[in-house]
Every structure is written in C-alpha cells, then in structure tokens.
Amino acid sequence: xxxxxxxxxxxxxxxxxxxxxxxxxxxxxxxxxxxxxxxxxxxxxxxxxxxxxxxxxxxxxxxxxxxxxxxxxxxxxxxxxxxxxxxxxxxxxxxxxxxxxxxxx
Length: 105
Hints:
The protein is mainly α and 105 residues long.
C-alpha cells in the first residue's frame, strides 16, 4: 500500500461514520497538510474498497445537497487489521532509531 492510500485509510478510521469524499479531503488538509483534489480522494477510496479494506454505503439524500446522496466509508475487519499492522511496524522501526541521529529542533 502506498503512502496516499495509507493516509486515506487513516482518515476513514479517524472519521468513523462521517467518512465521505469531502470529509476525507478536509481531514487530510487539516491534519496532514496535504491538499489533494477530490478526484484523487475518490480514486483512493475506490482502490481501498477494491482491496477489501473499506466498505461503503449510500446515505440518505438531503435538500442541502440538492437531493443527492453521500457515499460513506468505513473500515472492514481486514482494514482495521491492516492499519494496526502498519502502525505496529512503523512504531517498531521508529523505536530503533537512535536518539542522537534525529534532532527535532
């Protein structure tokens, strides 16, 4: 999985039941400083769904959206497990970096 898909997966996990295209885009902008167009977000979500890491459902239509529905995304069990493995691996690797090799000033 690439970095972008990983970021989208983290966004879906963080947003819980409020994860849809625009909210994922806003999350990545606000939390990761990544300004990504909505088409890239939709493609990333489709790829994650094709891999079985997220599932989607269509919410009810609203007047605010001109009668259009939102497609919401949530992690599958496989997605949760994958995200946990990624986090554990990164923590393990970062913990092996000697303190003297990184100066955070």
